[in-house]
């Protein structure tokens, strides 16, 4: 989550001070992502330097110094909200890397690696589901975070199942040369090098 844009969004509601921004950020994100007040003030300083927020000129530095959004900050926030994130390249995912390493590592039982991680992900899904049942109905922000996390974990479990099946099928087939190198794949999907 971009703290920079979250703070701009909170300031779009009206002037606020740093501690208030931290408290509202945590409340709006279901208190799932704690935010250090130092990070808030560092980000506010950068936003002020970039002309996206202004501080109250007569206020002293500290927890009660108010900030408000500038027209440039509002335009930046609007652009960010309307611009899809760059998802053209897969993220560097530790789980994917572990499975890819285990596939080629002598003596590694890749199926066991997959099952250990699959069990862990299922346990996490159960924990998030219990949280959803207990608390999500009272807090829309928290409910949205829980839903997103459940979908993310479910996608990882499905990927592990698909990877396990693909690895089993590959073990029963004769080896074949790589059909194309990775840079060609990146060009096909439009990813940046």
Tell me what you see in this structure.
With 193 residues, this protein is mainly alpha-helical. The chain folds into 2 domains: 3-82, Arc Repressor Mutant, subunit A; 94-189. 64% of the residues lie in helices and 5% in strands. The protein has helices at 3-11, 18-28, 37-49, 71-82, 94-104, 110-135, 140-172, 182-189; strands spanning 16-17, 53-55, 66-69. Strands 1-3-2 form a 3-stranded antiparallel β-sheet. Helix 5 packs antiparallel against helix 6 (110-135). The chain is elongated, with a radius of gyration of 23 Å. The mean pLDDT is 85.
Order of helices and strands: HEHHEEHHHHH
- Proportion of beta-strand residues: under 5%
The count of β-strands is 3
Major sheet size, sense and barrel closure: 3 strands, antiparallel
Helix fraction, binned, reads 55-70%
Uncertain runs are: none
How would you sum up the global shape? elongated
Distance between the termini: 24 Å
Q: Taking all residues together, what is the mean pLDDT?
A: 85
| Major beta sheet, strand line-up | 1-3-2
- Which value, in Å, is the CA radius of gyration? 23 Å
Which oligomeric state applies?
A: single chain
How many helices?
Answer: 8
